[in-house]
Design goal:
By secondary structure, the chain is an all-alpha fold. It has helices at 2-8, 24-54, 61-88, 97-130, 135-138, 141-167, 184-189, 196-229, 233-262, 268-292, 295-314, and strands at 14-17, 94-96, 176-177. The chain is built from eleven helices and three strands. It starts with a helix and ends with a helix.
């Protein structure tokens, strides 16, 4: 009996990440591509946060939420990408048990928080377009701060629930993870137990956050398009362009998450592809779609460059 109890305890101190691809030549090429993408993500989101913080013309609820979205994106990409980049150049791709739990916690915390924040941003646009006379009473700085804190809180609770499930599992042998980072469904498969019920519980927990957020986003943007189409044709074209861009970001972020956590697919290579999409390409798309298409952000960038050039001349 004592021997069996010993085997039931977690004896795995590290896990082996199999990564994205196995040929070394492909890994070097992927390293160069993902390194450039990661540098673009970090630099682009830092620029957005710096502009919104420093330019008084951008001190409004919409840009306050946009700055927080950039913060979420930078964190989401930074949880897994640096480790993936170093592993692409190493033959021995291991991660400690503590490091694995760190990735699981923060990945789910940031991803769930960003889902809620995207809903808050859609609500902000809904109020601005559909209820413009009440905008500054419904979306003041105090309320925006509360909504952002709510998104962080929901993300934290969601991540803690996953961490509680994982840390209590018995790991007694298998330790190879066929991915480039640790994630709940992959870790559950390594547990020395029947994981069917736990898989269902994980899907339900992820669905409880992702599905309502996705539905609320679609409802918000549908109401925006209906309202604008009833007002003016020129406004409808502009709103259609903006909403289409925003919905593109939502689909790129939500669809991979749904197929990984809520309605998982049985194809490992496809799960890897979807994970890369929401952890790298979405944080890269957000600055381009939410910022580079925005006239006020472009003007803020011009003011920043002009002020910098003027200071250099005066110096």
């Amino acid at each position: 009996m004592d021997e069996m109890d010993g085997r039931n305890q977690s004896v795995v101190s590290e896990f082996v990440l199999l990564g994205l691809v196995h040929p070394q030549s492909n890994q070097v090429l992927l390293f160069m591509i993902f390194l450039m993408l990661y540098l673009l993500i970090v630099s682009g989101n830092i620029v957005i946060i710096a502009l919104i913080t420093s330019d008084r013309h951008l001190h409004s609820p919409m840009y306050f939420l946009l700055a927080n979205l950039s913060l979420f994106d930078m964190w989401l990409s930074s949880i897994t990408t640096p480790k993936m980049l170093t592993d692409l150049l190493r033959e021995n791709k291991t991660i400690s048990f503590a490091g694995c739990m760190f990735q699981i916690f923060f990945t789910h915390c940031i991803a769930a928080g960003e889902m809620v924040l995207l809903v808050v941003m859609a609500y902000d646009r809904y109020v601005a377009i559909c209820k413009p006379l009440h905008y500054f009473t419904m979306m003041n700085l105090k309320r925006c701060t509360g909504l952002v804190l709510t998104s962080w809180t929901i993300g934290f609770i969601h991540a803690v629930s996953h961490l509680i499930e994982i840390t209590g599992l018995p790991f007694c042998g298998p330790k190879e993870i066929d991915s480039f980072f640790c994630d709940t469904p992959l870790i559950i498969k390594l547990a020395c137990m029947d994981s069917h019920d736990l898989d269902i519980l994980t899907n339900v927990e992820c669905g409880a956050v992702g599905v309502p957020c996705f539905i609320l986003l679609l409802i918000s943007y549908t109401n925006i398009l209906v309202t604008v189409c009833q007002s003016s044709k020129s406004g409808a074209n502009k709103a259609l362009s903006t909403c289409t861009a925003h919905i593109t970001v939502v689909m790129v972020f939500f669809v991979p998450c749904i197929f990984i956590y809520v309605w998982p697919l049985k194809f490992t290579w496809l799960n890897k592809f979807l994970a890369v999409f929401y952890s790298i390409f979405t944080p890269l798309l957000n600055p381009a779609i939410y910022t580079m298409r925005n006239k006020e952000m472009k003007n803020a960038m011009k003011r920043f460059i002009n002020n910098y050039l003027d200071s250099k001349r005066n110096f």
